[in-house]
Amino acid sequence: MIVQRRAVPAVLAAAALLLTAGCSSDDGGTAGGDEGASPSRTSPQSSQPAGQAAEETPPAKGSVKVVRTVAEGLDSPWGLAPLPGGGLLVSSRDDGTIVRVDDKTGKKTELGEVPGVSAAGEGGLLGIALSPDFASDRMVYAYFTSDGDNRVVRMLYDDEKPAGEQLGAPDTVFRDIPKGFIHNGGRIEFGPDKMLYVGTGESGDTGLSQDKDSVGGKILRLTPEGEPAPGNPFPDSPVYSYGHRNVQGLAWDTKQRLFASEFGQDTWDELNAIKPGDNYGWPEAEGRSDDRRFHNPVDQWTTAEASPSGIAYAEGSLWMAGLRGKRLWRIPLNGTEASADPQAFLEGEYGRLRTVVPAGGDRLWLVTSNTDGRGDPEDGDDRILEIQVS
To answer: Which intervals of the chain are annotated as region Disordered (predicted)?
Structure first.
């Protein structure tokens, strides 16, 4: 049984992690996968109830149109949270700041710097999310790397204060998530049930993923106060699913089914349909496995094609941002299975893609990631794009 907020062993030194982990999660593997290969369709175990009628599926082929560039000149953007009534909050991984972007004019206003952020490697200020009661409590949640761990905090947002002073002092909601130079996870989202879902990484220590007494290499499900959520699969535990390497994207479809993107090592990146209490195989399985202990992915990609980060659901498909792959993937769905081969868009046009978020209807917000130390930034990077999808 896991102990809430328990301490974890110190992580290995950054250099040792890089040697033993085999790759950096932001760029997938370095030793496997043909960059010209096609994605390999899988036949996943489905969490759709037995006997449920097949759902109407989207067309096999879709489309993407870049409507406009919303904002430019962002430094190492990572998380994005749309505000009710307009405006986008964007976190900077390396600066440790949150800015508000006017989604009409692109004007940027700094809310403030999140204290305690220690940016190094893949760590820093990562995912952000708004409280499900934001209209009344004005709370912004953030996942970040500190000197000793990864943690989730919440801060009061007061836009009546001067720029740079609009964030209140952070209240720590959940701490002691293992940190490393790599594999820090970082995506947080409130689900349809108003619980907080947290994607974590195994920080380069692969054994943590199968250890249900560790919160590394997991998807966690918490109350807004940071306690294990009611109905979790393991008693008194925040763990919702395990056997993950480095969860980077979380999204729900219209049936409230959870999906997650995950970095592989040298062979396969994954898109998974998440079932409470299931084991997703890492480090014993990477991609599809014949071992029935493990829940197989909805689909898998070579690391050169994907290295996936954020995901979003729109128009009957999941849309997955690729870092090393430098493209946006469309995965049409029938329930929790892919109904057709994935389709790639924007390949190489905007460089590395970090975050994709629903913007309502057939629109998405798409965030590039070329100023993160691994990209090749051009004039204007990094950007937020508004795209139209089908």
So the answer is: 27-63
Q: For residue 109, what pLDDT is reported? A: 98
| pLDDT at position 27 | 59
Question: What's the pLDDT score for residue 79?
Answer: 98
Domains and CATH numbers, the chain: 75-307 (2.120.10.30)
Residue 26's pLDDT is what? 63
State residue 55's pLDDT score. Answer: 76
Q: How far apart are CA 143 and CA 79, in angstroms?
A: 9
